[in-house]
Design brief:
It contains five helices and no strands. It is mainly alpha-helical. The protein has a domain of about 60 residues.
């Protein structure tokens, strides 16, 4: 993480000038860095799910996410091809 920040000319994690009050742990700092580096690549959802922080983070931003919505819906074409497949709950 610090190599990327150094390349960008930003203050390093743990050094003066880094917003430790917002990203005090390495995990939160990495989450923030990934959000900035991978902006627009639709990876934040999966990173939040993997870390177990999807529900609290997205709910705090006004997006109603439940445990059922953490599983993606099954496409209609798949369900039309096989009537034994049912839609995931929540969709």
């Amino acid at each position: 993480m610090n190599q990327v920040r150094a390349r960008a000319g930003l203050s390093l994690w743990g050094a003066a000038g880094y917003p430790v009050n917002k990203y005090g742990t390495v995990a939160l700092a990495l989450e923030h860095e990934a959000r900035v580096e991978l902006a627009g690549e639709f990876k934040r959802w999966f990173l939040l799910k993997r870390s177990g922080r999807a529900i609290p983070v997205l709910t705090a931003k006004g997006k109603p996410v439940t445990q059922e919505k953490l599983v993606l819906p099954i496409p209609d074409i798949v369900r039309l091809q096989n009537d034994q497949i049912t839609q995931n709950s929540g969709y």
